[in-house]
Design goal:
By secondary structure, the chain is mainly beta. The protein contains 1 helix and 5 strands; from the N terminus they run αβββββ. The chain has a single domain, classed as Beta Barrel (OB fold (Dihydrolipoamide Acetyltransferase, E2P)). The protein has a 5-stranded mixed beta barrel.
Length: 124
């Protein structure tokens, strides 16, 4: 228990919360340009080839790795994408995800369920 004299001599210090997505600079999304498209194999219990992109943020010239969600994509070098913070547990050093249906990353074709995650408009 803290005494009154301890509080008057040393004020209480609140903990500083560390950002999980420091490269976004406190923005919800950022525009970026693809440098390279490749696949990464996930950590131990899982096995697959996950599509990722090495990107460069347009304003800050910083490079980072971004997961491309969905089944297939048409991204190439110099494509423009919108990224957001989304930690991928089984991919090492991937804390960001690309947003489907914005800029050059088109929505998933023939998608019926969970359309908002994959950038598909409602079927009428």
């Amino acid at each position: 228990m803290v005494t009154l004299s301890q509080i008057t001599n040393n004020s209480r210090i609140s903990k500083v919360k560390k950002s999980k997505t420091p490269k976004l600079k406190k923005n919800p999304q950022k525009k970026a340009i693809c440098l390279k498209i490749l696949t990464i194999s996930p950590k131990k219990p899982n096995s697959a080839n996950r599509p990722v992109a090495k990107i460069s943020l347009t304003q800050y010239k910083t490079k980072l790795t971004v997961k491309i969600p969905g089944e297939s994509h048409t991204l190439q070098q110099h494509s423009t994408v919108l990224i957001r913070g989304a930690r991928v547990k089984d991919l090492i050093a991937v804390s960001y995800s690309a947003i489907r249906g914005k800029f050059d990353l088109l929505g998933v074709a023939n998608r019926k369920t969970r359309r908002s995650l994959f950038g598909v408009k409602k079927l009428s």
